Amino acid sequence: MTTVQQSELRNWHEVPFTRVKMTDMFWRPRLEILKKVTLPACLAKCEETGRIDNFAKAGGLLEGEFEGIYFNDSDVYKVLEGVAYSLMLERDAALEGEADRIIELIAAAQEPDGYLTTYYTLVAPESKWSDMEKHEMYNGGHLIEAAVAYYEATGKRQLLDVACRLADHYDRTFGPGKRHWVEGHEEIELALIKLYRATGEDRYWRLAYWLMEERGHGHGVGAIWEKPEWGPAYCQDDVPVREIEQVTGHAVRAMYLYSGMADAVHVSGDTAYLGALQRVWSHTVERNMYVTGGIGPSHHNEGFTEDFDLPNESAYCETCAAIAMVFWNHRMNLLFGDGKYADVVEREMYNGALAGISLKGDRFFYVNPLASKGDHHRVPWFDTSCCPTNLARFLPSIGQYVYARTAAGIAVNQYIQGEAELTLENGTAVQLKQRTSFPWSGTVELEVSPETSGVFTVQMRVPGWCRSYRVQAGGEWVSGVEALEERGYLSIERHWSKGDTVLLELDMPVERIRAREEVQANVGRIALQRGPVVYCIEQADHPGLSYDEMTLSAYGKLRVEHREDLLGGVTALQGTDGNGKPYRFVPYYAWDNREPGFMQVWIREKEEERLYKY
Amino acid sequence: MTTVQQSELRNWHEVPFTRVKMTDMFWRPRLEILKKVTLPACLAKCEETGRIDNFAKAGGLLEGEFEGIYFNDSDVYKVLEGVAYSLMLERDAALEGEADRIIELIAAAQEPDGYLTTYYTLVAPESKWSDMEKHEMYNGGHLIEAAVAYYEATGKRQLLDVACRLADHYDRTFGPGKRHWVEGHEEIELALIKLYRATGEDRYWRLAYWLMEERGHGHGVGAIWEKPEWGPAYCQDDVPVREIEQVTGHAVRAMYLYSGMADAVHVSGDTAYLGALQRVWSHTVERNMYVTGGIGPSHHNEGFTEDFDLPNESAYCETCAAIAMVFWNHRMNLLFGDGKYADVVEREMYNGALAGISLKGDRFFYVNPLASKGDHHRVPWFDTSCCPTNLARFLPSIGQYVYARTAAGIAVNQYIQGEAELTLENGTAVQLKQRTSFPWSGTVELEVSPETSGVFTVQMRVPGWCRSYRVQAGGEWVSGVEALEERGYLSIERHWSKGDTVLLELDMPVERIRAREEVQANVGRIALQRGPVVYCIEQADHPGLSYDEMTLSAYGKLRVEHREDLLGGVTALQGTDGNGKPYRFVPYYAWDNREPGFMQVWIREKEEERLYKY
Questions:
Q1: ipTM, 2 dp
Q2: Could you tell me if A275 lies within 8 Å of chain B, comparing CB atoms?
Q3: Where is the Non-reducing end beta-L-arabinofuranosidase-like GH127 C-terminal domain positioned along the sequence (chains A, B) (predicted)?
């Protein structure tokens, strides 16, 4: 088993998205749409579907029966979390007023002992904690995340108090010498650690740690055991977490667990989980991830099957799982200071996660196949609507992935135009200005302005897709020891004065990607990627073409064309197929935003003999 | 056998280098050095070694015996040709005076019937035309090329008259119903066609055509047959030229022949040679060319052996052969309007041919291996000094490879910053301004200024190494039918007005190249190329490293760094080898310009498992 030493840890610190002002043309318009369209639409759907009324009913403020599914409370919390992040970016009285109204209902629904899950209160109060699959703590976790966010956004304590009462109720009920519990859908773990960070109360992270340690010892209970084909691996209850070797079961649950485990290392200083985290990361990313970053190929368990089982048309690839990969990989990136984790964050940001939402911000994918004959389309809402509400909280907080504070200075993890401010370990305040048209261009100019001049290190991530690059600092080529490249970052250690710039030019040609040969679905196929953006072909651009008819030579030349009038502004790829017919590729994330038709990422390769093989 | 139709021909017209003013930082400084160092050095060597005196002696102006080798006259002619080209770029009274002095001696050496080869005049006047291997017409061909050039440069007819008298002598002596002749070293064929173009006298190209047709019918005579291991294939006398299937024998001779054959198609309109040219081109380029553009692996015959026999350390790759590849491929490019030929021109320009000369312009390689343990160095001169003198005429005329006039407009074949003027088929004068830092950057801005606005087509070559690119014309993305890509060129047909620009951005990442698996020497090895420039590793940058010790991962990241202070200004590549040690690659053409040590192009690959294969 891998032993990971304390010395391998970097323990970078997050730079919160509130310190990062994004002024770019890719994400900033999406944040506007999120605020104007997505959040109001999600709130309206929560209202229409009785999700909000459930709280009023549980609190005795409204007559009626519980509506929907037992985990529906979580959707309301997740939208509230998104509202909070949006308010942090820009206060909005109307949005805040609506949130306050909902929070009143939530507070009313909390039972006197702190318990809160409207399904059990309204439907089966006597059956609480009898079934790990009923998402009681999953609901609780999302409440906690929303509460911490809303408190940070507004300074209002009401929801935070509800969350603490709930967490205290858990802490009184479960733990060493108290009741056992394994939650079927992880989420509570990372939420409790967030609550610890917000309140400084150690007992919250200790409870999170205990809950993780409970797994794999036969403490799981309830109806899930009646589905033997799932088994305990479905909800990561098959082995003690520190012994995890392989990713198993439900994809979102697994990713939330690993996120909690990474958090636990960070808060506890205990490296016991590191070996498991590294093993399961390799197993997930190297054998069970699609080129889009999608994970979990199977509809059956919303999760993993066999290694390299990555079918395209039937790919499940839940949007939530892609978002959860961001959560986990961001934490791993901070823990280890290794760009290979930020690579995954980036892959999800521009592909697997972003595909989940329409360009207009009002329709969503739950399932993200890599090929479709034309019958798969986004819809405004789902009975199980975890994906829209996950996007509602993921998108506004995207600024947090851009920078980190390191022991020696600053790390730039993602390239998004904007401004940021942070304080170095030594107390020096630094202003950063990033100019780039990423992801459409690989040129990034970073202006570094420390309050007082001094020596520190700026680490620029060299993405995994980038195979050659140029870099200058202060107008000089960076070379030698001051430009060590380690763990996917170029480290520039120098004396920085106000206005000094780093100019990083990442070569961003179109790459023809071949899957590992173990992936049966992609044998003889290639995909196109430019920078972090994976491309697909859509029928909308090829009216005469049939599904899977096209062939592509790996050696054909591609014309790269930025079109502001296409799909909200995309860089498209144009070339000639194996039969000499012109074609166009568009970013995968933007598919199904025009007339219905087929879509394909992996295209059959037309074999061609070449003088040299590249 | 391939049948090539008349309709496949494009018959582009060359834009002479006199119409192309190069203002770039790569070639222009080399032209300065050529004029200041290389030409004077070559003239001095011709003087020192008795090459010039041989003319004075043959003309009865000086006492003494013939010095050197029978083909030494040709070196004087080739330097004179280089002087002429240099004078076309910039008049220089001293250089011209020296040329005039030498020309007087050459004229004096010509025999009354027009015969001119000082070896035979001085050594064996009775043995003329008894041995095809004695380079009589090879000398004559170079005289003709020099004469045409000098006449075009200065308007002075003396040398041209000598050349015409010589050609007339050939024409009187050889031809249908006269004597048979197969010249052992081709050169006369393309020279006679040049003389036809300069004088308008049909008999010159007809004689060239007849000389080519003589081959392969058993008409060769002389000592060469006493070297049975060479045989007639050595000098392309084994089959009639129109039946050529494969490249054989001495590399320079073969390339000069094919150049003459391409010229013959152009002047005669007869397509009989096209099939042979296309076949032998594929055979040469796809099976018998090094990544540097070098051809002819063997010292034994200065030429070709078996397909895919491309050893690195023992590679012969004569500089002249690389230059001759330019001559041939330039002609093929004009004939077929196909960028695959211009790709070879470019490959030679930036690699195989350019390596032949030191950065200071005063030392030369005859032999260009792709790996050296440290004992191979340029020298100031050779007994057989064809290579220095070929560089002396190749370099100043490099501007001719940049543009061509097409039926529909203009083709841009090479990217070199500068200005040019040409006249379209319809009579419109067009000024071109090209701005680029090629070969270090793939961004090219071409300003197209026709005297009067109108519709025509500008074809921009998309080099073979370039796999994705962006292009705008008049500030707009070019797409659809006006941007057809055919035969390696992007055609932009539009209405052009003064000052309209094309902005072409060729993605120029570092490519890791693998040879075809048939090349035994390179199995398990990779080479690095960026744009047209092939890289090598030199001991000068790695004092602690042993020859062939280094390993390289195909997936390692490379830092691209332009260094004006290194090797005359180069873009170097820096990275980490398979063992984590830093390394630097420098352009192959620039090797052996620092302290002696090993050099390698093909590096052993360190195998590494990757998530995705590129």
A1: 0.88
A2: no
A3: 510-604
